Amino acid sequence: MNTTASRKLKQGETWPRKVTVGRVIVSVYRRKTPLGNFAYMVANYAGEKRRFDSHATEAEALDAAGKLARQLSARDVIGASMTKEQSVEYANAVQSLQPLGITLSAAVAAIVEAVKLTGDLPGVAAAARFYKARHKTITPKRVAEVVAELLALKKSRGGAERYVSDLSFRLDKFAEKFPCNISSVQTSDIQAWLDGLKLSSQSYANNRRVAHLLFEFAVARGYCLDNPALKVERPKIRNGEVKIFTPDEARRLLASATEDFLPCLAVGLFAGLRSAELERLEWQDIDLQQGHIVVGADKAKTASRRIVPVAENLAEWLKPYAERTGAIWPHGRDWFHKCQLATARATEVKADPDSGVAAQKPVKWKANGCRHSFASYSFALCADAGRVAGYCGNSPSVIHRHYKQLCTPADAQKFFNLKPAQSVNVLPLAATAN
Question: Of 178, 266, 309, 334, which shows the fewest CB atoms inside 10 Å?
Answer without folding.
Answer: 334
